[in-house]
């Protein structure tokens, strides 16, 4: 159906022009949103790569301090060790949690234990699977 009235044609062209402008604005907003999301993701990834600190498995808030014969945290975790490094501790934590995740879908909990004759140690436990003495 052809529009013959010049006034109607002008109105339709104006509507079409406004729709095109609105579409362009939506596309620009979407592209800005994508760019912002990408910048946020890159910043998070940069932060993860730059952070070589180990988060305490007990409190899950503070970073652990690792010395040759000591692992400690502000939360009170204090374990005497033999020749421990951050790399060894990170590897122990990652391997133990990964091994647990192969057998169980639940998140393990870490606690510090000490007995009358025992040295203080880090214990990983799960409400579903067995306890594992982790770091002594």
Please provide the count of β strands. Answer: 6
Structural class of the secondary structure composition?
Answer: alpha+beta
Low-confidence stretches: none
Instruction: Give the neighbour order of strands across the main sheet.
Output: 1-2-3
Q: Provide the succession of SSEs.
A: HEEEHEEE
Name the overall outline. rod-shaped
Q: What is the helix content?
A: 40-55%
Number of helices: 2
Give me the Rg, rounded. 29 Å
Keywords: Metal-binding, Zinc, Zinc-finger
GO molecular function: zinc ion binding
Organism: Nothocercus julius
Pfam family, one: RPA_interact_M
Can you describe this structure in just a few lines?
The protein has helices at residues 6-50, 86-103; strands spanning 65-67, 70-72, 78-80, 109-113, 121-125, 132-135.
Question: Which key features would you list for this structure?
Answer:
alpha+beta, three-stranded antiparallel sheet, 6 strands, 46% helix, 17% strand, rod-shaped
What does this structure look like?
With 136 residues, the protein is of the alpha+beta class. The protein has a three-stranded antiparallel sheet with strand order 1-2-3, with no helix packed on it. It has two helices and six strands. The chain folds into two domains: 1-49; 62-133, no CATH class. A hairpin with a 5-residue loop joins strand 2 (70-72) and strand 3 (78-80). The mean pLDDT is 81. The N and C termini lie far apart (86 Å).
């Amino acid at each position: 159906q052809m529009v013959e009235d010049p006034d109607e044609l002008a109105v339709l062209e104006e509507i079409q022009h406004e729709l095109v402008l609105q579409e362009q604005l939506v596309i620009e907003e979407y592209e800005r949103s994508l760019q912002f999301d990408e910048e946020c993701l890159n910043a998070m990834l940069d932060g993860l790569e730059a952070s070589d600190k180990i988060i305490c498995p007990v409190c899950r808030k503070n970073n652990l301090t690792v010395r040759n014969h000591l692992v400690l945290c502000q939360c009170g975790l204090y374990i005497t060790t033999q020749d421990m490094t951050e790399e060894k501790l990170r590897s122990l934590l990652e391997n133990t949690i990964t091994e647990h995740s192969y057998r169980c879908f639940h998140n393990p909990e870490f606690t510090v234990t000490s007995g009358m004759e025992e040295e203080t140690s880090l214990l990983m436990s799960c409400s579903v699977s067995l306890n594992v003495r982790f770091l002594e």
